[in-house]
Design goal:
Helix content is 54%, strand content 6%. It has 168 residues and is mainly alpha-helical. It has a domain at 3-85.
Length: 168
Amino acid sequence: MSRSYWHEYKRHKYDANRRSISFLRTFDEWLSIWENSGHLAERGCRKGQFCMARFGDIGPYVRGNVRIITVEENYAERKLLLGRDNPFWGRQHTDATKIKISRAKQGSHMSAEAREKIGAASRGKVLSASTKAKIGAAHRGKKVSVVTRARLSEAWVRRRARALRGLS
């Protein structure tokens, strides 16, 4: 058995478990599926590579419910499950599940580089008048604390000063 394939198998099993998907395959079965597909060396998660997918992205990783397809095919299939076609459509997480998700996300912070990329992507975008009106309507009537008001005021003063420095 190849050490790297063993680690790939364990990673696949771990990722499935993390997404609460049952992974009922042994290493030998997993490796056999990949070898029979002829795409073992082309395994991956990038464009042009191949992945092990479940039919309809539903159910566990078991015999008869998996196949090897391109990452693009898997993505296209996943897009079909948006909106009303999604099995979770119209349902809501229970309070217990929300707490569990919240605890799992605690302590994970975005890197400064990731925050900068997001900021750069949204910087300079002009909002339409209707979008601005919707945002205003959503915020209208909200009560903010004295501390928040002070912070907003300070931010406004800094922004204004920066704009004036740019003009002179």
